[in-house]
C-alpha cells in the first residue's frame, strides 16, 4: 500500500485509522442527510481506505470523493 514509505506496523495503524473513521461515519450517518468527511488523499483515493470499510458495512451507501493535487499547468489535468 505505502511502498517504501512505511513499515508493516504503519500500514496496520493506517488501516485501523481508516476502519475507525468509517465506523464513526456510519454511526453518524442518517438517511436523506448529507454527511461530509474530510481526510487526506491516502484515506480516500482509489476508493480504498475509508471507503473500503464503508462499503463492507453498507453496499448501498451513496458517496463521492474529491481529491486535490498540485501541478504547474492548470489548463490540462494530469493523470
> How would you state the average pLDDT, rounded?
85
Structural class: mainly alpha
Task: Give the total of beta strands.
Answer: 0
Largest sheet: none
Radius of gyration: 15 Å
Distance between the termini: 19 Å
Low-pLDDT stretches = none
| Principal-axis shape | flat
Number of helices: 2
Strand content: under 5%
- Helix/strand order: HH
Name the helicity range. Answer: 25-40%
Could you walk me through the main structural features you see in this protein, from its secondary elements to its overall organization?
The longest helix has 21 residues. Helix 1 crosses helix 2. The chain is mainly alpha-helical and about 80 residues long. It has a domain of about 50 residues. The mean pLDDT is about 85.
Q: What would a concise description of this structure say?
A:
The chain is an all-alpha fold and 79 residues long.
